[in-house]
Amino acid sequence: MLYRLSLDPEQVYTCEAKSPLGRKPRSTLRANFSFIDPDSVQIASSSSKVNLCDNNNQVQVTCKISRDHVSPAPTFRFSVDGPRSQGPQPGTDSSDGNYYQSRFSLSPDVGGQYQVTCRVTNSVTNTWQDKSTQITFNKPPPGPPQITIGGQTYHGISPSNIVTMAEGYTGDVTCRVEGGYPGAHSTQLKCGQLENTGDGNTANVRFTTVTLTRDLDGTVCTCTSQHDSGCYNNRETRYTLNVLYAPEVIFTKSSPSTEFNKGDSLGLTCSAQGNPDPTSVTLTRERNGDIIKSVQSAELTHTLNSLDCLNTGVYVCSGQNSQGTTSEEISISVNCAQQFSPVFSPSPKVDGVLGETAEVDIEIYGFPEPSVTLQRILDNANLTSSSRHEVKYTSTVAPFGFVNVTISDLVKADYTNYTLTIDNGVGDALIFSFYLNEGEAH
């Protein structure tokens, strides 16, 4: 007789028959079946997210299968797919009354997304099942934020902690954090009143609408950033702005007045401040560019003793350094009677052609500006406001000026002697006499 049985593994089965003679032959069978049930592998990690900080970078991955779902005891192999991949390798096997299991330790030194796969294999049938789990390892960036100014990069805090820039710079200041997993975030750059926070690993400050000025000299700029690991200890870079600028000049005089009398004294003080320090301070007279005094320091003093008319004019104080030259001016006037210019020799005879125009020019100096009167000596007539006579004074470079006399449409009666009176109310008037002589037409 043949029976078809449903057999259980690891179970002993007995078949017994009875003969006509009463004998009972018996046969026993121990069944030992090999199988692995589908979707029966379980995998779990001690953490799905790990921060790669000191003493905190190991994750235990446990892979197990119930004894009811596999026979005989399987083998376990682990593989890792990620920034640091690993091929199949064994774990540490163990078992209890209910499960076969194996443990695998993952401790990478590179941040990233890792996938750990456990393969459970039935060695008899050579069939297997795979089960995977994802683990994220956050690793902070290796270095502090980097600051770039005008194409030059500053890494971390320099020994001097100083960044030198020239006044007027209108480019970008960029703060960026390199490396790490994932990238840094909430990167903030503060520079004086300028501030910007970037969503990612970069923040910019642009000196455009607000140019880099000397007021920012000594300002501390700070770049900070955050990282998901929570252990980014290099998250800050600080530096101090060293702003180079041309000298700022302060030019003063010992008296608040701008007008002086002959014989007075006047002290002039000129100081300059810049970055770097001024290399020289120079005092000049504007009208001829003569250097009155120059020093290789940041301050100059000079006294104008016994002022006279020729001291009238504009004085210029200049401070110079590697960033340029800056100047300030002071204008003074010294009261004095009008005089002929030292380089002018007036001629007592002026030629003029009938029907044409004759001109007389006289260079003088003095202060204040004078009034001018033209008289004909013959009849003592005042010709200053005559329709054919024009008399005017034109100031040039203080205290110098010109007196111009123009006589138009000459007639015979114009050939005579004249007196030109130049008077500014200080001292005696300046008198110039000339004779208009009839010249030949060309």
From TrEMBL:
Chain intervals with Polar residues compositional bias: 86-103
Top-level taxon: Eukaryota
Region (Disordered): 74-103
Native species: Elysia marginata
Name used for this protein in its record: Vascular cell adhesion molecule
Gene3D superfamilies per UniProt: Immunoglobulins (2.60.40.10)
Pfam families noted in UniProt: Ig_3
Chain ranges of the Ig-like domain: 247-333
Signal peptide: none
